[in-house]
Write a structure and sequence with these properties.
The complex is a heterodimer of chains A (about 375) and B (about 400). Chain A is mainly alpha-helical. Chain A has 14 helices and no strands. The longest helix of chain A is centred in the last third of the chain and has 31 residues. Chain B has a domain of about 210 residues: Orthogonal Bundle (MetI-like fold), CATH 1.10.3720. Chain B starts with a helix and ends in a 5-residue tail after the last helix. In chain B, about 30% of the residues are buried. The chains are: A mainly alpha (about 375), B alpha+beta (about 400). At the A-B interface, helix 2, helix 8, helix 9, helix 12 and helix 13 of A face helix 2, helix 4, helix 5, helix 11 and helix 12 of B.
């Protein structure tokens, strides 16, 4: 009787799984490839080494003033010394706990919303759009519940940057949805108004919008209304962003097959019900990755408020550089800010790619 | 019973018009237009009132007034005695200058990096990916600041300039390059160049016709390249070389002669190029990947060689995907060039919305004019884009 006995797997053929084989296949497969690889190594390795040397090995990390920077590398003392300014702006130190709460709440909310398997997402989203803004407003601005008022000109740093990005998106989303529906409406006047609005804001640079908001907006309102500078910038950002959001959502609406619209009509649903129950849920779902991308763009663009004199992350760095005690550390300052922005933007772009994969349930190539 | 029924029917008839989608649509639109009109009226009347109480002049008469501020870099002649209108033109030209420089270099770099990203060489493709991910995720303004304050400010003084030959000098005052000096007779060369372009168009048509008739392929690309370079070159030589280069020379503390690219322009152009190239690289990559593998296999089944496959199968299909987002990147670059104001490069926003607005205070007119410029650029480009799309859209059955 022949008994089947499982044989141990053979090792893969020699010269196919070693490091050398990998190198040969991926970096030295031909003459040209070898030359390119060697040239790149020749250029990159010294550069990378000097960067690491500057940023880590010969860097100074902690201290009180510039005299501690003696090792010739990066002087991170400049950053660690002013970390509070970077995180809180000029927010009074005794009230920092309020900002910490806002950071924590925001992180919790965003994490819960971004994680695909969180239960009760509809309620959470509702809270995010309706309750959260009020909580954040009272926490940051105060003036109620026994909290002391902190004027907006004291807001700054990362807090302001995040605030502008999140408020811009939260407020732009509903406006964008309405505009996108308007642009696809069958009523010619509504369509025309939406198109004009969207195309106008998309055509002009954000910096002109911010200038307009800070210089022209006060002219447009009657004299008694005295508008906060931050609020004006926010209005500019929201108007600007809503046009971009509208275009993204319009793309999602166009991607929904016509049969869905017809099926909704056949069920006897009116316009708002068919949009709210059938079309929008599907359209929003497929546009989330693009919405995250527009949010990344907005988040980067919030740095422009530096130019109209708000005190965001970039402005904190610039202001620190004009401090006579710290002249000449611009590279460290900008490198640090760049790292902060990069971590946020890169994280979000990875998230949007992950979502895209998750939503991509069709045929993969 | 019947009486009640007819009463009900009357009610239905009486209220039916409110359920008529057409009537509803008209009412809805009328309300929307009325709201917008009211809002505009409110804003405009407030603006007029506020400007009157603050003593701000209205109208475009200020464009004729003396500007009385200097501009660091001008493409056409300008002095402090010129008008605000002239300053507007200077700013517009400077915006266009940096945009064109940025678009050319960003496209070249973006295509290179995008193709490198798809390379089979692991190191090259990783290096391209790192480049893309770093520069795409850092705000442009920060990058401009970095180039301006960290790199260009730390360059040596003019006397210790970094130089390439005796022609290019890089120092803290900017990049000095040789400037072409055109002599009489150069118009012949330009003429020859135009003749060469026309000749290429004719040649292409003829070659295509011949290929349809006989199947023979004429090397249009190389002969065209030869025409484009050779014809102007020959004219140049025969007309006695009517062009020489004026080299920058160190005189005292600065360079004279040649053409100096001021550090503001340099940092802006570099930052715009690097930032936009990262996005363009991603567009190029996704465009090339969008051509399905079956297309390449079909081409090789038809017997096309690698180069021909690239030319006739991959590039035409990839370009259809690449060009629309590429144009929107170009538009982004033009809009982003307005960040010039942060480092003081005299572009439209900096000259007009900055200096002119500060001096005249006529916010409404100035902001409207500036926005109109960007609006025009954007609308013209998207109109061209729509024409291109209509022409090249995939014809589906």
């Amino acid at each position: 009787m022949v008994v089947y006995r499982e044989q141990p797997s053979l090792p893969s053929p020699a010269g196919q799984s070693s490091v050398a084989a990998w190198l040969r296949k991926n970096m030295f497969s031909s003459w040209l490839n070898s030359i390119v690889s060697l040239a790149l190594l020749y250029v990159l390795i010294p550069q990378l080494w000097s960067l690491i040397h500057w940023a880590f090995i010969s860097a100074d990390w902690f201290g009180d003033n510039r005299d501690q920077c003696v090792s010739g590398g990066a002087c991170w003392v400049f950053i660690t010394n002013r970390l509070n300014l970077f995180i809180y702006g000029f927010y009074p130190e005794s009230e920092h706990w309020r900002v910490n709460w806002v950071y924590a709440l925001t992180a919790l909310q965003v994490a819960a919303l971004l994680y695909p398997k969180t239960p009760h997402k509809t309620i959470l989203t509702g809270i995010f759009f309706i309750v959260y803004p009020f909580v954040v407003f009272y926490l940051l601005y105060g003036g109620a519940f026994g909290l002391e008022v902190v004027e907006t000109h004291k807001w700054g740093g990362l807090m302001l940057t995040l605030l502008l990005g999140i408020v811009g998106t939260l407020a732009a989303l509903p406006i964008g949805i309405v505009l996108a529906l308007g642009r696809r409406s069958e009523m010619p006047m509504i369509r025309a108004l939406s198109v004009v609005f969207i195309e106008f804001w998309r055509a002009v640079p954000l910096i002109t919008v911010l200038f307009m908001a800070s210089v022209m907006l006060p002219l447009f309102l009657s004299g008694e209304v005295n508008m906060d500078k931050l609020l004006r910038a926010m209005i500019g950002i929201i108007l600007f962003e809503s046009a971009y959001v509208a275009e993204v959502i319009r793309g999602g609406l166009q991607a929904i097959p016509k049969g869905q619209y017809e099926a909704a009509k056949a069920l006897g649903l009116n316009y708002w019900k068919s949009m709210g129950l059938i079309i929008m849920p599907q359209a929003l779902k497929i546009t989330i990755p693009s919405l995250v991308n527009t949010f990344i763009e907005l988040f980067k663009d919030t740095s422009l408020v530096t130019i109209i004199g708000l005190f965001d992350l970039l402005a904190v760095a610039k202001a620190g550089l004009s401090d006579p005690a710290w002249l000449g550390y611009s590279t460290e300052a900008y490198a640090f800010i760049a790292l902060v922005f990069w971590v946020f933007c890169f994280g979000m772009s990875r998230y949007s790619m992950y979502l895209e994969n998750l939503l991509h349930t069709g045929h993969k190539r | 019973m019947p009486a009640e029924n007819s009463k009900n029917q009357n009610n239905v008839v009486a209220t039916r018009w409110i359920y008529d989608p057409k009537v509803r649509g008209i009412i809805f639109q009328a309300v929307a237009v009325a709201c917008v009109a009211w809002m505009l009226f409110y804003f405009i009347s407030n603006a007029l009132h506020n400007m009157e109480t603050r003593g701000i002049a209205t109208g475009f008469a200020f464009l004729e007034n003396r500007a009385s501020f200097g501009i660091a870099q001008t493409l056409i002649s300008y002095s402090e005695d010129d008008t605000y209108g002239r300053a507007f033109i200077i700013g517009l030209l400077n915006t266009l200058l940096v945009s064109v420089i940025g678009i050319i270099f960003a496209t070249a770099l973006g295509f290179l990096v995008g193709i490198a990203r798809l390379s089979k060489n692991w190191l090259l493709s990783r290096a391209a990916a790192v480049y893309i991910e770093i520069f795409r995720n850092i705000p442009l303004l920060l990058q401009i600041f970095f180039w301006y304050f960290c790199v260009l400010r730390n360059l040596p003084a003019p006397r210790q300039s970094m130089s390439l030959g005796d022609a290019f000098f890089l120092n803290v005052r900017g990049l000095s390059i040789p400037a072409p000096v055109i002599e009489s007779g150069f118009s012949f060369v330009v003429g020859a160049f135009i003749v060469a372009i026309i000749a290429i168009v004719v040649l292409r048509k003829w070659a295509k016709k011949r290929q349809y008739l006989t199947g023979q392929i004429f090397p249009v690309f190389y002969s065209g390249l030869g025409l484009l370079i050779g014809l102007p070159l020959l004219t140049f030589l025969f007309s006695g070389m009517p062009l020489h280069w004026e080299l920058p020379e160190l005189k005292g503390f600065n360079f004279r002669g040649g053409f100096t690219i001021i550090p503001e322009l340099f940092s802006l152009a570099v930052a715009l190029t690097i930032f936009t190239a990262a996005s363009i690289a991603e567009i190029v990559r996704s465009g090339i990947l969008s051509v399905s593998k079956g297309q390449v296999e079909a081409a090789s089944a038809l017997g096309l060689r690698g180069g021909l496959t690239l030319r006739f199968v991959i590039i035409p299909q990839a370009m259809r995907v690449i060009i629309p987002p590429l144009t929107s990147q170009f538009l982004n670059l033009v809009k982003n060039s307005s960040l010039a104001t942060a480092v003081g490069y005299p572009d439209l926003v900096s000259v007009f919305m900055g200096s002119t607005l500060n001096q005249t205070g006529q916010a409404v007119e100035i902001i409207a004019m500036t926005m109109a410029v960007y609006l025009t650029i954007s609308l013209v480009t998207s109109a061209l884009m729509n024409m291109y799309n209509a022409k090249n859209a995939l014809v589906e059955r």
